[in-house]
Batch of 2 targets.
Target 1
Amino acid sequence: MLARKWLTLWALVLIASVVLSACAQPTPQVIKETVVVTQVVEKEGEKVVETKIVEKVVTPTPEPPKEAEIGPYRIGIFEEPVSLNYWNYLGPGSSVWTSYVLTGYAASLFGLADKTFAFVPVLAKDIPEPRKEGDLWVIEVEMVDNATWSDGEPITAQDVVFTHNTCKDLQLTQNWPNSCAPLGADVTAEAVDDFTVRYTFNVTPSLGIWNAGVALAPILPKHFWEPVVKEAYSYIEAVEKPDVERPEDCEAEDLSDEEKAACEAWAAYDEAFENARKTLYEADATGSPVFGGFITDKWEPGAFVQRSQNPNYYFKGAEIIEYSDGTWVQKLPDGTVRQYYGEATGDVTLDYVSGPYAPNVILSIYGSQDAAFLALANGEVDYVLNPLGLSRGLREKAMQGEGIVAYDNPDYGMFYLAFNMRKYPMSEYEFRQAFDIIIDKEFVINNVLQGVVYPMYSTMPPGNGFWYNPAVEENHPYKGLSREERINLAVQVLKEAGWTWEKEPQWDPDASDVIPGEGLRMPNGELMPEVTILGPGPAYDPIRATFNQWISEWARELGMPVKSELTGFNNILGPVFINADFDMYILGWSLGNPAFPDYYEAFWASWNDTATSGNYNTPGFNNPEYDDLVNKFMSTTDIEEARQLCFQMQELLADQRPYIPLFYKRVTDLIRNNIELPYTEVLGGIVDAAGFQTDAKPLVK
Amino acid sequence: MWRFLGRRFVQMLITLLLFQAVTYFLIDAQPGDIADLLTLDPNIPPAERERLRAQLGLDRPPAERFITYIGNFYRGNLGVSFQEYPRPVIDIIKERLPRTVVLFLTASILSFWTGFVTGKILAWRRGGWIEYASTITGVTLYTVFTPWFALMMIWLFAVALNWLPAGKFLDPLKWLDAPISANAVFARMIWSSFFALVIVFVGFWFSNRVPRRQRLVLRAASLLVPLVGMLLYWRLSGLGFYAWDIARHLILPVLTVTLIAYGGTMLLTRTSMLETLREDYVLTARAKGLPDKVVRDKHVARNALLPVWTGLVFSLGNSVSGGIITETIFSWPGIGLTLLNSALVADIPVAMGTLTVVGVMTLISHLIADIGYAFLDPRIRYH
Amino acid sequence: MAEATATTEHVYVPLWRVRLSLFWKSLRTNWAMFSENPIGLIGLGVILFFALFALAHPILMNTIWEPRVYDPISGYDMEIPFHPSPPSARHLLGTDPLGRDILSQLMYSTRYEFALGILSAVVTVVIATTIGAVSAYYGGIIDTILMRLADLVIMVPFLPILIVLSALTDVGMIELALVIGLLSGFGGTTIIIKSQALTIKVKPFIEAARVAGGSDFHIIFRHMIPNLLPISLLYMMFVVTGAIFSEAVLSYFGLTTIQMSWGIMINTTQLFGYLLRFDTWYLLIPASLAITLLCAAFYLVGRALDEVVNPRLRRR
């Protein structure tokens, strides 16, 4: 009897749970629809055939006899993009992973040519000349009138002005100022007509302001973003800029009433802009039209991002030809031909037709480098985007995969040893010179590190051929010296500058080793204090750690009490970039826009001293001659003059040595051979080629 | 019971607050904040750094920030991520927590069950090579260097045998035309498995209360019904293809975590059984002439379950800690991986959010442990 | 105190000799019990092996291993053209991607693993035993506060806290040992030792000492703690296991500033991309196996001690 009761109860619970799970199911109609979707998955071959027809139209290059089918382009990445909002991407949400997912998203008036990084028009019809109007400078840009966004809306001067004004009025942060107010210049944009933009500058539109700044500014679709931007403006419309000076310290105890009022006014002003920007950065970008070859239409967090072809891509089918004399030619499908920088003589160095070819680009998110390269070896992806640098083991592993090809390109970066020139003895010329003498880069790189990196002498990586001054390395006085010569020369240089030892360092020919010096006194008569070289530890970067240990070892042979302090990156950040309180450190820079190396101002101009301005002149390098050069460099509009100035700056830096460049890396891209790329030789690696997604043809084998 | 729960709740709240305070100030005390990291680019002027700092609220003193944070936290606002600005932390947790919980819940239940059953049998057979072999296996699994073990599992199953995918949550190429998002499919997987488990559990529970003849039928039915139900559900919804893809990716991580946890449970059960065997009532039961199996399963095992239960519950609470290792190696986008990444870049809101999740999970598991005692041990009663 | 010494004077045997002989006796019986357990002996054997392994390193470095080639941190073998190289006569376990001898690294790291394990275990035991005894002896409010603290510390997720700490400051061996020792000392171990201390507190000799006028301090440190030591020793073993494991995981993630350890060896393997390569097994397996073996050995000894200390587990 009891058992029966239990049985009934159980049956009831059973029915209840079945009902509950039935409720969780979708309605029957939806079920049928989704079944259809699975069939589509199975019939994917058909979809590929369709894209094949498109491909036939746009590819004039000779085809293999059997028509190659083009499949999805599968790329591996290791981390999630931050968001798909382009405003946020150039603002606080910037990340290299987002850039892969949003590449080609925004339009621009001008751009950089493939391979040569020459300044070429994109949506502009021609390269305009600046002219002076009274105190102001004006540049008028005529735009092409038949370009459209992916949704078919035309791209007009209104979009350009809209983006410029949003950036300027909302005081957008991080990377945005470089687009609308580069180097603090006041730039106004107006639409003269639908396809003409007029820029007005309060200063000379130098290379840094125009060519590397406003001209390259992104353009975003006004018709999509206007509602959001309007909402953002609503926060700042009511606020006036306070007409009092911003008080220096609002946290101070003894504020006068006036100061208090000023503080409050400014706080309200700041907050309004804060909210305005936040509205924009937070906005949902789903469905926003794009300019480039692919539309990012699906993001499965933690798994993958899918991009599909933009049918309205303006440059689809355009042919780009470059010649060895520097000529750049672009033939648009509508017959327009644009040619710059030469007469099209010499060999053709580049000739390709712009895509997009792949029906889809799928960026799979792998949690780690190891997993991504395993996937490459196993054939799950065709290419792995790797901003972290490829290690030897991973390379070997991935090369075991079928049809993997490696492309080696110089990286646009620099790893260096910096001196704190505000402190004695780092401020001594001969002290830094002695380090330059004893550091045997080739030894560490070739013998210890087995050539994973390359020795560097100038502050410009050799890969950037236009700006690189080869004389610096050719004339480097200490290149190729033996250990004995190095130690003797360093001792001699220091001695001449007034350094003394109780026991001088000696070269012991029998042991082929140095007998370290003892009791080193500096020219001011004091014993040399202990100095440390800060640097990342072996767990973070074994290469820099190895360099650090060797450098301090060599310095100790000279009798200098030098200690390597290998620590976490967070612990280097504070003393170097915030407090400017260190002795020496080893770090690296990734150098940004190769077309105009404005880092020469950021890293070494005296007004950018970290200690006084919070900028990036960490060594505190203060040299009037250099300041003069850098000023000319930043204000010239003539690229040839800029180049000569850059050469001089490289020589001056190689002599003064606020930094001793140590090495640069090479980027190795591993890519499966079914991916046809228009070109593979490019500074920074394939990923720095603008069309690494759009112009690639993933053939199905 | 209710008074006990109320008191425990207050205690838990205080503990959680303390925990949050400690972790907040620890993370906050890191040299260099995220504003420095994000603006370490010569093209970004230093004024931008200050502006970003103000925007993230980093210009306020830590104590003030902590109070604001706690105030917002208990109003349900966990802030926005610094690193993935301006994504709300709660979003990130909602997305990743289910993945971690499923992985570790499945693995814990599996390891608990297998560990308990084998431990029970092993305690009964002392001496001989079986005891040593099983102890060595158990200890090896318990003390093995987890990352290495996980790598070896990948090597065996994904490389050498090539049976299973090596990592990740799903295979992107299969999901290009998926009608709904992976998280939605995953949520349905969780719910359907939950219902299925409830049916099985209830069925088995009742089967002990019906006559022997009906028992078998009932047990078979409670296994078959959910099985058929699940099959039908996934077949009809057309999502079975996608669910299977996720499930396939789940197997290797679950197997690995299960094996690692299995060693501990097995050893603990064995020890606990041995201790219980010395109790007088076991001797009495044996003296009554009850069969060994009955003494073992009814008299000893039930009491020996107590510490094992504690172990299980605690291990659930700690699953996030362990998750850091397994999730990193299997590229499993769960809460452990998020915690590791956010703590390293001083993304305070995300690190705090995930750490608090860990804390809350531990607290809840301790509470469940205490309540579980009351069921398992009739001598314990809470007032 | 005075009376305690008076009683010993009557017997005319110095106290330390009584203690020593008692200690010796108990050691012998305990060893007899311990040695019955082959699993504990295996563990002890492994620990001894690693101890010898660690001791052998400086000897080898001073005799047959040339420092320039075999130094675990800065060594480099120029005679081998490509690193990492598989095991050979020159390098029994091969070389790592930076051209350093793996066997030498393995041996060199062993001493630090021991130091780390033992230091954190000692810290744990000192804290846990003191707190456990004090808490049991006084009870009341002190007990409540200390036990709530223990509850809080138990709740702390170990690994995440270590990760947060490593971002906060440079974590070397000593810092790591102290943190691990503190966290396990204030947490679970305390609670177990306190429950043990409660059973000792009610023993007659404590009452006798109190009647004899012994101060609280005297009773806790001379009577309670010595009786808690066996169980403390037992938990030391488990702490060692935990400490070595934590160090390895943290170093593997690249979060410590330790120059060389088993975890760093695996980290180097990963940094150079050899982690998921199984043809270069000699980079991954020796260090991983060493971690596993040493952790297991301490755990086995702990379990065997458990059977000695805890009579309910004995076979007979």
Target 2
Amino acid sequence: MNIDTSGEIPIFIQIAEQLEDSIFTGVFQEEEKIPSTNEISALFNINPHTVLKGMNMLVDQGIIYKKRGLGMYVREGAVQKIRTKRQGEFLAKYVEPLVKEANKLSISKEDLFELIERGYDNGGN
Amino acid sequence: MAGIEIHGVTKRFGDVKALDDVTVTFEPEKIYGFLGRNGAGKSTLINIIANRLFADGGSILIDGTPAAENMGVHDKIFCMSEADLYDDSMRIRDIFKWTGRFYDNFDIDKALEISKKFELDTGKRFKTLSKGYQSIFKLTVALSLNVPYLIFDEPVLGLDANHREMFYDIMLREYAQSPRTIIIATHLIEEVSGMIEDVVLIDSGKILFCEEVEKLMEESYCVAGLSSQVDDYCRGKEVVGTDQLGALKQAYIIGEREKIAGNDSLQFSQVNLQKLFIKLTEKGGESI
């Protein structure tokens, strides 16, 4: 994890995104405990309220849940939930900027399709 | 009301108005960044809160009780600053013992534990410590005191990067364990920008604003593009500063981000706290 305190994205959103990523890539497994608010706060020099705000975003999305007195745990089915969410965001987050940039560079639709084919050939997995 | 309430505080040094009708409230259990340029009045206000200086006018209430000449507030506030208030020929561990006698809520075991983390030799006399370690000693005392209001005036002066990191780490852990008001006056804005919840900005003895950092970031942005287009865009908006680079102009704006549809030539970005601070406190609004 790496938090950029002077960046474009609010810190609590960065916390949520990075925790989500760690869950998605299996760093934190389902039904496993994730680091506490205070640990994350001290490690990255972030106000604990900000960290909690990021965590609550994931609670609201049903990705983690609170076990009273024990801490935050990854919910069963979290990985599938994240995958579905990210698939839903794929068009707006990746495809639309790609098409916009291609238009700026006068890359035609056919050429763009071909470039995507080549991307697959180069082993983009 | 709980908190440190400052009402209309004024302080003059000869002809210089160091504080000009300062009114601001520090709420309980929040971490504040107290920012201002050199000579803006930060230390003067801190010294008045800590009863080391007397205001010419105005009042300060600590949890509803007037602070001036009131020994009761002594148990509530601790201020760590550059001033050395110690008998410098004493050994560190003896100063710890004395501090324990003066403050009921001083945890000497915690002080020894923090000293160990910083590798502060408690057998040494204060005056034989390096500048950095003198700061570390004072930070150790502050971090071992469980008071509801902790003020740090330039806490990391002379500390190397490792020790600064260690200080922030311990401070945040202490805060998480027993929440309290922490006020940090510092020039190292980048280092504390993630830690502070609210920011109080003072300039030429006046409070410019007191605002949540997150809200401030939401409500300020930067727009860049061709000078004429940027000027058009800025009309009617609160521009706090600009930078010019040939035909390119960059303007820093406070207010809601208004995007003009179909205009791709203007670029919008976030302003960070340090940049905003510089623009708001720039003398004469000029940029270099």
